[in-house]
Amino acid sequence: AQTVTQSQPEMSVQEAETVTLSCTYDTSESDYYLFWYKQPPSRQMILVIRQEAYKQQNATENRFSVNFQKAAKSFSLKISDSQLGDAAMYFCAYRSAGGSEKLVFGKGTKLTVNP
Amino acid sequence: DVKVTQSSRYLVKRTGEKVFLECVQDMDHENMFWYRQDPGLGLRLIYFSYDVKMKEKGDIPEGYSVSREKKERFSLILESASTNQTSMYLCASIAAERGGYDTQYFGPGTRLTVL
Measuring CA to CA, which residue among B31, B46, B32 is closest to residue B112? Predict the structure, then answer.
């Protein structure tokens, strides 16, 4: 079974600075998808960014980018120019490429942005 | 715009009560999921459904059942609520595999307290 590990329960960053959230995963599959979700306080979980395992190029979405290291099974999220609205719980998730659409989640990282 | 709704944001029930949590999606998605979210444990899958009247157990199905009589609606049932079922419950949906990396869409969550 696949597992996802987020080793940082909490992180903090100064507004306008850069922060990196860590995620590692364990799988024997070669084709899969990885996701970062954001859950703001009392608000809905939304997708931040996603990566296909067979694509070597790291995904980027505006201020959000990932560092995908397939051999190391690492999928970190970098947030540049942090804003107060980035404060949230961030979850890393794994999904197999074939069959079920089930997601396996990490335990989350709570990000605080200091003004 | 994509929408997943849950019947209640906050719910307080007593031990032993039968509890229904309702989830509705308007995207004609085949797959629907119920998760439980607890601090330090992340999201854990309770049950999922890949079609009307079809269901599969997730990682923590004990004490729960589900019902999917219509494609757009997926209900989570606590047959006899217990205090250890106090938690945040999240519903999600996604279309069946299309060869892409579509994301799960989440509802706002129901915070259930069992007294």
Answer: B46
Distance (Å, whole) CA A8 – CA A6: 6
Are B41 and A107 in contact (CB < 8 Å)? yes
A57-76 per-residue burial string, b: 16 or more CB within 10 A, e: under 16: eebeeeebbbebeeeebebb
Instruction: Locate the chain A residue with the closest alpha carbon to B47.
Output: A102
Strands A10-14 and A109-114: parallel
Chain B residues whose beta carbon lies within 8 Å of the beta carbon of residue A95: 101
User: Do B108 and A44 count as a contact with CB atoms less than 8 A apart?
Assistant: yes
pLDDT tens sequence across B17-50: 999 999 999 988 889 999 999 988 999 999 999 9
The torsion region of residue A42 among left (phi > 0), alpha (psi -120 to 50) and beta comes to left
Phi, psi of A3 (to 5 degrees): -135, 150
Q: Under an 8 A CB cutoff, do B101 and A52 touch?
A: yes
A99: which chain B residues are within 8 Å (Cβ-Cβ)? 97
